[in-house]
From TrEMBL:
Ranges for domain 2Fe-2S ferredoxin-type: 237-322
Listed GO MF terms: 2 iron, 2 sulfur cluster binding; metal ion binding; oxidoreductase activity
Limits of the FAD-binding FR-type domain: 5-110
SUPFAM superfamilies per the UniProt record, alphabetical: 2Fe-2S ferredoxin-like (SSF54292), Ferredoxin reductase-like, C-terminal NADP-linked domain (SSF52343), Riboflavin synthase domain-like (SSF63380)
Pfam family, one: Fer2
Taxonomic source organism: Brevibacillus invocatus
Top-level taxon of the source organism: Bacteria
This protein's name: Oxidoreductase
Cofactors named for this entry: FMN
InterPro entries, per the entry: 2Fe-2S_ferredoxin-like_sf, 2Fe-2S_ferredoxin-type, 2Fe2S_fd_BS, Benzoxazolinone_Detox_Enz, Beta-grasp_dom_sf, DmmA-like_N, FAD-bd_FR_type, FNR_nucleotide-bd
Assigned keywords, A-Z: 2Fe-2S, Flavoprotein, FMN, Iron, Iron-sulfur, Metal-binding, Oxidoreductase
Length: 322
Protein backbone atom coordinates (compact mmCIF):
# COMPACT_ATOMS: atom_id res chain seq x y z
CA UNK A 1 0.00 0.00 0.00
CA UNK A 2 1.12 3.55 -0.72
CA UNK A 3 1.06 6.53 1.64
CA UNK A 4 -2.06 8.67 1.17
CA UNK A 5 -1.45 12.40 1.14
CA UNK A 6 -4.14 14.79 2.40
CA UNK A 7 -5.55 16.79 -0.48
CA UNK A 8 -7.50 20.00 -1.08
CA UNK A 9 -10.30 20.22 -3.65
CA UNK A 10 -9.85 23.34 -5.82
CA UNK A 11 -10.93 24.70 -9.18
CA UNK A 12 -9.23 26.97 -11.71
CA UNK A 13 -10.76 30.43 -11.35
CA UNK A 14 -8.56 32.27 -13.84
CA UNK A 15 -5.82 31.62 -16.40
CA UNK A 16 -3.35 34.36 -17.34
CA UNK A 17 -0.96 34.06 -20.29
CA UNK A 18 2.33 35.37 -18.87
CA UNK A 19 4.47 34.61 -21.93
CA UNK A 20 3.94 32.52 -25.10
CA UNK A 21 5.06 29.45 -23.11
CA UNK A 22 4.04 30.28 -19.51
CA UNK A 23 0.53 30.34 -18.07
CA UNK A 24 -0.42 31.44 -14.57
CA UNK A 25 -3.31 29.56 -12.93
CA UNK A 26 -5.40 30.99 -10.09
CA UNK A 27 -6.74 28.18 -7.87
CA UNK A 28 -9.62 28.63 -5.43
CA UNK A 29 -11.04 26.26 -2.83
CA UNK A 30 -14.07 24.35 -4.07
CA UNK A 31 -15.63 24.89 -0.64
CA UNK A 32 -15.16 28.65 -0.83
CA UNK A 33 -12.90 28.81 2.22
CA UNK A 34 -9.43 30.30 2.55
CA UNK A 35 -6.60 27.96 1.65
CA UNK A 36 -3.93 26.91 4.18
CA UNK A 37 -1.24 29.42 5.09
CA UNK A 38 2.19 28.87 3.57
CA UNK A 39 5.74 30.17 3.90
CA UNK A 40 7.80 31.88 1.20
CA UNK A 41 9.31 29.36 -1.24
CA UNK A 42 6.54 26.79 -0.77
CA UNK A 43 5.09 24.58 -3.47
CA UNK A 44 2.04 22.40 -3.91
CA UNK A 45 1.64 19.06 -5.65
CA UNK A 46 -1.18 19.03 -8.19
CA UNK A 47 -3.13 15.89 -9.10
CA UNK A 48 -4.83 15.88 -12.50
CA UNK A 49 -6.96 12.95 -13.61
CA UNK A 50 -6.24 12.08 -17.23
CA UNK A 51 -7.01 9.17 -19.54
CA UNK A 52 -3.49 7.89 -18.87
CA UNK A 53 -3.92 8.10 -15.10
CA UNK A 54 -3.24 10.72 -12.43
CA UNK A 55 -0.62 13.34 -13.30
CA UNK A 56 1.28 14.40 -10.19
CA UNK A 57 3.37 17.56 -10.56
CA UNK A 58 4.94 20.14 -8.21
CA UNK A 59 4.60 23.90 -8.70
CA UNK A 60 5.81 26.85 -6.62
CA UNK A 61 3.24 29.21 -5.15
CA UNK A 62 3.93 32.60 -6.74
CA UNK A 63 1.79 35.00 -4.70
CA UNK A 64 2.65 36.73 -1.43
CA UNK A 65 2.31 34.39 1.59
CA UNK A 66 -0.11 36.89 3.17
CA UNK A 67 -2.67 36.04 0.45
CA UNK A 68 -4.59 32.84 1.18
CA UNK A 69 -7.99 33.33 -0.48
CA UNK A 70 -6.43 31.67 -3.53
CA UNK A 71 -3.20 30.08 -4.74
CA UNK A 72 -1.32 30.97 -7.91
CA UNK A 73 1.03 28.69 -9.82
CA UNK A 74 2.87 29.18 -13.12
CA UNK A 75 3.41 26.39 -15.64
CA UNK A 76 5.88 26.52 -18.52
CA UNK A 77 5.05 24.44 -21.59
CA UNK A 78 7.98 22.14 -22.34
CA UNK A 79 8.55 20.74 -25.81
CA UNK A 80 9.54 17.39 -24.26
CA UNK A 81 6.60 17.35 -21.85
CA UNK A 82 5.65 13.90 -20.60
CA UNK A 83 2.09 15.05 -19.99
CA UNK A 84 2.30 17.54 -17.15
CA UNK A 85 2.84 20.93 -18.75
CA UNK A 86 1.14 19.90 -22.00
CA UNK A 87 -1.98 18.89 -20.09
CA UNK A 88 -2.02 22.12 -18.09
CA UNK A 89 -1.65 24.21 -21.24
CA UNK A 90 -3.96 22.33 -23.59
CA UNK A 91 -6.56 20.58 -21.42
CA UNK A 92 -7.05 22.70 -18.31
CA UNK A 93 -9.51 25.59 -18.59
CA UNK A 94 -11.22 27.98 -16.22
CA UNK A 95 -13.60 25.90 -14.11
CA UNK A 96 -11.47 22.72 -14.22
CA UNK A 97 -11.53 20.94 -10.85
CA UNK A 98 -8.54 19.16 -9.38
CA UNK A 99 -6.91 18.20 -6.09
CA UNK A 100 -3.74 19.68 -4.67
CA UNK A 101 -1.57 18.88 -1.67
CA UNK A 102 -1.12 21.09 1.34
CA UNK A 103 1.82 23.48 0.83
CA UNK A 104 5.28 22.07 1.46
CA UNK A 105 8.56 23.95 1.65
CA UNK A 106 11.99 22.52 0.83
CA UNK A 107 13.38 25.88 -0.32
CA UNK A 108 12.76 28.32 2.51
CA UNK A 109 14.32 31.68 3.26
CA UNK A 110 17.07 31.77 5.86
CA UNK A 111 16.31 34.43 8.42
CA UNK A 112 19.91 34.30 9.61
CA UNK A 113 20.89 36.02 6.37
CA UNK A 114 21.85 39.69 6.43
CA UNK A 115 21.21 39.90 2.68
CA UNK A 116 19.54 37.55 0.17
CA UNK A 117 20.75 37.16 -3.44
CA UNK A 118 18.52 35.22 -5.84
CA UNK A 119 19.69 33.76 -9.17
CA UNK A 120 16.96 32.48 -11.48
CA UNK A 121 16.84 31.19 -15.05
CA UNK A 122 13.63 30.71 -17.04
CA UNK A 123 10.73 29.33 -15.02
CA UNK A 124 13.12 29.19 -12.04
CA UNK A 125 11.83 32.66 -11.17
CA UNK A 126 8.68 31.21 -9.55
CA UNK A 127 9.82 30.39 -5.98
CA UNK A 128 11.50 33.78 -5.68
CA UNK A 129 8.25 35.70 -6.23
CA UNK A 130 6.82 34.72 -2.84
CA UNK A 131 10.25 35.16 -1.23
CA UNK A 132 10.64 38.73 -2.49
CA UNK A 133 7.11 39.62 -1.37
CA UNK A 134 7.88 38.27 2.10
CA UNK A 135 11.17 40.17 2.35
CA UNK A 136 9.55 43.43 1.23
CA UNK A 137 6.86 42.99 3.90
CA UNK A 138 9.58 42.51 6.52
CA UNK A 139 11.80 45.32 5.27
CA UNK A 140 14.74 43.00 4.61
CA UNK A 141 17.32 43.42 1.83
CA UNK A 142 17.61 41.29 -1.29
CA UNK A 143 18.46 41.38 -4.98
CA UNK A 144 17.34 39.29 -7.93
CA UNK A 145 19.39 38.22 -10.93
CA UNK A 146 17.16 36.70 -13.62
CA UNK A 147 18.15 35.25 -16.99
CA UNK A 148 15.61 34.80 -19.77
CA UNK A 149 15.76 34.56 -23.55
CA UNK A 150 13.99 37.83 -24.34
CA UNK A 151 11.59 40.44 -22.96
CA UNK A 152 8.68 38.47 -24.47
CA UNK A 153 9.86 35.20 -22.89
CA UNK A 154 10.59 36.76 -19.49
CA UNK A 155 7.87 35.49 -17.14
CA UNK A 156 6.48 38.08 -14.71
CA UNK A 157 8.39 40.89 -16.43
CA UNK A 158 5.72 43.52 -15.68
CA UNK A 159 5.50 42.51 -12.02
CA UNK A 160 9.26 42.62 -11.62
CA UNK A 161 9.57 46.03 -13.27
CA UNK A 162 6.67 47.51 -11.34
CA UNK A 163 7.33 46.06 -7.89
CA UNK A 164 11.04 45.20 -7.71
CA UNK A 165 12.71 47.47 -10.28
CA UNK A 166 15.43 48.70 -7.89
CA UNK A 167 16.32 45.16 -6.78
CA UNK A 168 15.99 43.33 -10.10
CA UNK A 169 18.74 42.68 -12.67
CA UNK A 170 17.60 41.12 -15.96
CA UNK A 171 19.83 39.28 -18.43
CA UNK A 172 18.23 38.68 -21.85
CA UNK A 173 20.26 36.33 -24.05
CA UNK A 174 18.59 37.42 -27.32
CA UNK A 175 19.33 41.08 -26.63
CA UNK A 176 22.81 42.02 -27.97
CA UNK A 177 22.97 44.93 -25.51
CA UNK A 178 22.27 42.74 -22.47
CA UNK A 179 25.04 41.17 -20.42
CA UNK A 180 25.05 37.50 -19.39
CA UNK A 181 24.22 36.35 -15.87
CA UNK A 182 27.48 35.26 -14.31
CA UNK A 183 28.30 33.82 -10.88
CA UNK A 184 31.26 36.12 -10.20
CA UNK A 185 28.92 38.82 -8.87
CA UNK A 186 28.77 36.75 -5.69
CA UNK A 187 32.39 37.71 -4.95
CA UNK A 188 31.42 41.27 -4.01
CA UNK A 189 28.65 40.41 -1.54
CA UNK A 190 29.05 41.28 2.12
CA UNK A 191 29.59 38.75 4.90
CA UNK A 192 26.31 37.21 6.00
CA UNK A 193 24.86 37.04 2.48
CA UNK A 194 22.92 33.93 1.52
CA UNK A 195 22.61 32.91 -2.14
CA UNK A 196 19.72 31.02 -3.75
CA UNK A 197 19.63 29.30 -7.15
CA UNK A 198 16.74 27.97 -9.21
CA UNK A 199 16.77 26.94 -12.86
CA UNK A 200 18.17 24.17 -15.08
CA UNK A 201 20.41 21.63 -13.36
CA UNK A 202 23.52 22.78 -15.23
CA UNK A 203 23.00 26.40 -14.13
CA UNK A 204 22.29 25.43 -10.52
CA UNK A 205 25.39 23.23 -10.37
CA UNK A 206 27.58 25.94 -11.91
CA UNK A 207 26.46 28.58 -9.44
CA UNK A 208 26.69 26.22 -6.46
CA UNK A 209 30.27 25.29 -7.33
CA UNK A 210 31.17 28.95 -7.82
CA UNK A 211 29.66 29.95 -4.47
CA UNK A 212 31.69 27.26 -2.68
CA UNK A 213 34.86 28.35 -4.47
CA UNK A 214 34.23 31.95 -3.33
CA UNK A 215 34.11 30.78 0.29
CA UNK A 216 30.38 30.71 0.97
CA UNK A 217 29.58 28.27 3.81
CA UNK A 218 27.32 25.39 2.76
CA UNK A 219 24.55 26.66 5.05
CA UNK A 220 24.54 29.94 3.10
CA UNK A 221 23.91 28.20 -0.26
CA UNK A 222 20.33 27.25 -1.16
CA UNK A 223 18.91 25.79 -4.36
CA UNK A 224 15.89 24.12 -5.85
CA UNK A 225 15.54 21.81 -8.83
CA UNK A 226 12.22 21.24 -10.62
CA UNK A 227 13.35 17.86 -11.92
CA UNK A 228 15.49 15.13 -10.37
CA UNK A 229 19.19 15.23 -11.26
CA UNK A 230 20.14 13.08 -14.23
CA UNK A 231 21.82 9.94 -12.85
CA UNK A 232 25.12 8.89 -14.38
CA UNK A 233 24.17 5.24 -13.81
CA UNK A 234 21.00 4.08 -15.53
CA UNK A 235 21.41 0.30 -15.48
CA UNK A 236 18.45 -1.78 -14.21
CA UNK A 237 18.93 -3.45 -10.83
CA UNK A 238 17.20 -5.67 -8.27
CA UNK A 239 16.12 -4.69 -4.78
CA UNK A 240 15.59 -7.27 -2.05
CA UNK A 241 13.16 -6.04 0.61
CA UNK A 242 14.18 -7.67 3.89
CA UNK A 243 11.03 -7.08 5.99
CA UNK A 244 8.60 -7.60 3.10
CA UNK A 245 10.46 -10.71 1.93
CA UNK A 246 10.09 -9.60 -1.68
CA UNK A 247 12.39 -8.79 -4.56
CA UNK A 248 11.49 -6.14 -7.12
CA UNK A 249 13.22 -4.93 -10.26
CA UNK A 250 14.00 -1.29 -11.07
CA UNK A 251 14.11 -0.41 -14.75
CA UNK A 252 16.74 1.76 -16.43
CA UNK A 253 14.20 4.55 -16.95
CA UNK A 254 12.51 4.13 -13.56
CA UNK A 255 13.36 5.46 -10.10
CA UNK A 256 13.55 3.12 -7.12
CA UNK A 257 10.67 5.06 -5.56
CA UNK A 258 8.50 4.54 -8.64
CA UNK A 259 9.27 0.81 -8.60
CA UNK A 260 8.38 0.55 -4.89
CA UNK A 261 5.08 2.37 -5.36
CA UNK A 262 4.23 0.28 -8.42
CA UNK A 263 4.82 -2.86 -6.33
CA UNK A 264 2.46 -1.59 -3.61
CA UNK A 265 5.23 -1.02 -1.05
CA UNK A 266 4.53 1.65 1.59
CA UNK A 267 7.01 4.35 0.65
CA UNK A 268 6.80 7.87 2.09
CA UNK A 269 7.95 10.64 -0.25
CA UNK A 270 7.52 14.34 -0.92
CA UNK A 271 9.82 16.27 -3.27
CA UNK A 272 10.85 13.48 -5.70
CA UNK A 273 14.07 15.38 -6.54
CA UNK A 274 16.36 14.33 -3.68
CA UNK A 275 15.97 17.52 -1.64
CA UNK A 276 13.81 16.76 1.40
CA UNK A 277 14.89 13.40 2.85
CA UNK A 278 11.34 12.09 3.26
CA UNK A 279 12.00 8.96 1.19
CA UNK A 280 15.17 7.88 3.03
CA UNK A 281 15.46 4.11 3.58
CA UNK A 282 18.00 1.94 5.39
CA UNK A 283 20.42 0.03 3.15
CA UNK A 284 21.51 -3.36 4.51
CA UNK A 285 23.70 -4.48 1.64
CA UNK A 286 24.99 -3.22 -1.69
CA UNK A 287 26.66 -0.07 -2.99
CA UNK A 288 24.58 3.06 -3.62
CA UNK A 289 25.12 5.75 -6.26
CA UNK A 290 23.88 8.83 -4.41
CA UNK A 291 22.24 11.66 -6.38
CA UNK A 292 20.51 13.48 -3.54
CA UNK A 293 21.44 16.79 -1.92
CA UNK A 294 20.47 15.70 1.62
CA UNK A 295 23.26 13.42 2.81
CA UNK A 296 26.71 14.66 3.81
CA UNK A 297 29.83 13.14 2.28
CA UNK A 298 30.34 11.16 5.48
CA UNK A 299 26.77 9.82 5.37
CA UNK A 300 27.15 8.87 1.72
CA UNK A 301 30.37 7.03 2.44
CA UNK A 302 28.67 4.99 5.18
CA UNK A 303 26.44 3.38 2.51
CA UNK A 304 23.66 2.64 5.01
CA UNK A 305 20.90 4.98 3.81
CA UNK A 306 19.62 6.24 0.44
CA UNK A 307 16.94 8.45 -1.07
CA UNK A 308 14.69 6.26 -3.18
CA UNK A 309 13.51 9.10 -5.42
CA UNK A 310 16.90 9.70 -7.08
CA UNK A 311 19.63 7.30 -5.93
CA UNK A 312 20.39 3.94 -7.55
CA UNK A 313 22.50 0.82 -7.22
CA UNK A 314 26.10 0.87 -8.41
CA UNK A 315 25.92 -2.84 -9.18
CA UNK A 316 23.00 -5.16 -9.88
CA UNK A 317 21.46 -5.53 -6.40
CA UNK A 318 20.63 -3.73 -3.16
CA UNK A 319 19.11 -5.07 0.06
CA UNK A 320 16.84 -2.62 1.87
CA UNK A 321 15.22 -2.85 5.30
CA UNK A 322 11.70 -2.32 3.88
Amino acid sequence: MTVMQPKIHVFVKQIIQETPSVKRFVLVSKEGADLPAFSAGSHVTTFLNTAAGTLERHYSLVQAPAITDHYEIAVQLHAQSQGGSAYWHHQVSEGTELFISYPKNHFSLSFRAKHHVFYAAGIGITPFLSMMAELVAQGRSFELHYAAKSREMCAFYETLQKTYRDSCHLYLSADPDSSRMRPDGMRQQRIGTHVYFCGPETMVNQFQEAARSYGYPQQSIHFELFAPPAPMLREPFLVELWQSKRTISVGSDQSLLAALLAAGIKSPYSCRVGRCGTCAVEVLSGEVAHYDSVLSEKERAAQDVMMTCVSRAVHNKLVLSL
